[in-house]
Amino acid sequence: MMQTPFLLRHARTTDIAPLQILIELSVRGLQKDDYSPAQIEGALGHALGLDTQLIEDQTYFVAEPRRYLSRSRDPLPNGETLPIVRMTKYL
Q1: Which of 4, 57, 61, 81 has CB 3.0 to 4.6 Å from 73, enough for a Cys bridge?
Q2: Quick one: which H or E segment has residue 27?
Q3: How many domains does the chain have?
Q4: Considering the domain boundaries, does residue 1 fall inside one?
């Protein structure tokens, strides 16, 4: 049986901060051509934010790579750091 390249698991409360950062970076990057900065800011805290109740209910999942080259602490635009997984090429 072939192993999938990702491990699917329930999100934990320790995932909240990284998920919030990931959502914010994704929204800012993917929506920049479609919405004004004010619209993006307005949506981030409400419509496009992380619903932590789903984590408490164990209905929010995280896909983690099974293999990676290295973990690093890459700087974010605001100067903070977040562990980023650098993945290998999957079979």
Answers
A1: 81
A2: helix 16-31
A3: 1
A4: no
